[in-house]
Amino acid sequence: MSDMQELVFWLPNRVGKHEEQGLAYIALPPSAEAGGKYPLLLAFHGSGRGALSYRDIPFYRRQRDIAVSCGYIFAVVSNGPDTFGKDDGLENIENLYTWIGQNYPVSEQVVLWATSAGGLLMHRFFRLSPERVSLLLGIFPIFDPLKMPQLPSMMRAFGATDRDSLLRKVYALGIVPSAFPKGLYRKKYLVIAHGREDKAVPIAQSHELMKQVERDGGEMTLVEKPGGHSTQNMSLYETSAFCKALLGQKKADSIKDS
Predict the structure, then answer these.
(1) Tens-place pLDDT, residues 56-104
(2) How far apart are CA 55 and CA 149, in angstroms?
(3) I need a labelling partner for 243 at 20 to 30 A (CA). Which of 42, 129, 224, 249 fits?
(4) CA distance 179 to 160
(5) Confidence of residue 44 (pLDDT cuts 50, 70, 90)
(6) What is the distance between the alpha carbons of residues 174 and 152, in angstroms, rounded to a whole number?
(7) How confident is the model at residue 1 (pLDDT cuts 50, 70, 90)?
(8) How many C-alpha atoms does 156 have within 13 Å on its Cβ side?
(9) How far apart are CA 234 and CA 220, in angstroms?
């Protein structure tokens, strides 16, 4: 995308004990929308990834390109293991959101796009102020850590020695769906793509999310694809649902591709 502008910088007031935390990456479309404001999309990376994954890795870069092609400022900050929804990750995302609002003319509401472990941080950010979020997108995002396989990366992120200690820690952070307020997803729209053979984050996670969204009075399009939890599974982007949602063209149904 030759007309796209890119910026890499250390976020002011960055927090976290991990070396990569606080590194921000922003991609801007060629021009602002009518009225002089850009729509804004915040991305939440997965475990073992970071801000520069969206510049250097084709799987993540595809998200950036979709957003920028639809006229959005695309922004992400590295959070290391704290992308699992921990306090420092939330603070860095909030700081990034504030920094962009202070330096660019952006729309009042923001779009969120999470991948894998970033789903926990996305839902935590959303839960604090749902009114500032217009749309939620996801690629095999974690929704309920209580119903997940016992991933070594998640155990390490929370410093948990066994499943009981993990459960205590995620409960304390309020990142389990039972802690979400009723009606959280009311009038909200989500698009999630998930591989049916995903063993790391089973597709049941997205089925549970869809049930919760519908119970709350929201809408969700679930794009089911073959394949598993891999950055080689580019089929997850073989849908028009993401672009349609970003452009305000809702289609609330499930899509199953062979």
Answers:
(1) 999 999 999 999 999 999 999 999 999 999 999 999 999 999 999 999 9
(2) 30
(3) 129
(4) 20
(5) very high
(6) 21
(7) low
(8) 10
(9) 21
**Token pair for residue 211?**
């049930």
The closest of 238, 136, 244 to 186, measured between CA atoms, is 136
* pTM confidence score: 0.94
CA distance 87 to 15: 10
Check if the beta carbon of residue 47 is closer than 8 Å to that of residue 65: no
DSSP state of 29: -
Among candidates 39, 47, 49, 46, which has minimal Cα distance to 75? 39
> Two tokens at 134?
């217009």
The dotted CATH code for 5-256 is 3.40.50.1820
> What's the maximum distance between 2 C-alpha atoms anywhere in the chain?
53
- Beta strands 73-77 and 23-28 are antiparallel
Q: How far apart are CA 223 and CA 251, in angstroms?
A: 11
Question: Euclidean distance between the first and final Cα of the chain, in Å?
Answer: 30
As a whole number, mean pLDDT of residues 29-34 equals 68
Identity of the residue numbered 230 = S
Q: CA–CA separation, 3 vs 65, rounded Å? A: 12
Residues 6 or more apart whose Cβ sits within 8 Å of residue 139: 63, 113, 114, 115, 116, 192, 193, 194, 236
Q: Say whether 147 sits in a helix, a strand or coil.
A: helix
d(CA 111, CA 99): 16
Q: Name residue 25's beta-bridge partners.
A: 8, 76
